Amino acid sequence: MDNDNLLSVIFRAIADPGLTEGYKGDRSLTQWQAEAVMRAIAGLRPMTRREHLLSCLAEEGAEIGHRVSKALRFGLGEVQPGQSLTNAERIAEECVDLQAVFDMLAAEGIFPLMTAAELDAGKEAKRLRVEKYMLLARQVGALE
Hints:
3 domains, 6 helices, 71% helix, globular
């Protein structure tokens, strides 16, 4: 199967996990989607190490989004029942997990290795872009 067809299978599973996974039940949306993707591609062929790591990277990104969504709804300081960490602490953990997988991909040559100076410059450039668009959002009344 070529990459375009593989992407199509994955995107369909993410967009409508009910097609392969049925009822969501008690699973988080992220878990439901991840299980749908795994079921959709399970019969195609074994994943390569690269594909598996990229899948892990996507999953970590989704987990960050999921946890941020909870923090927006319930607050950064909220501790979910059955958990010991606040939403803020769990977001930080998920960011570390994402960075760990990214580093694994970079170590395999999939992403370029960056020096500390390059990382700092990239973060500063992103900070400036975020501030620029926050100013625009404030100007149009979308941000207090």
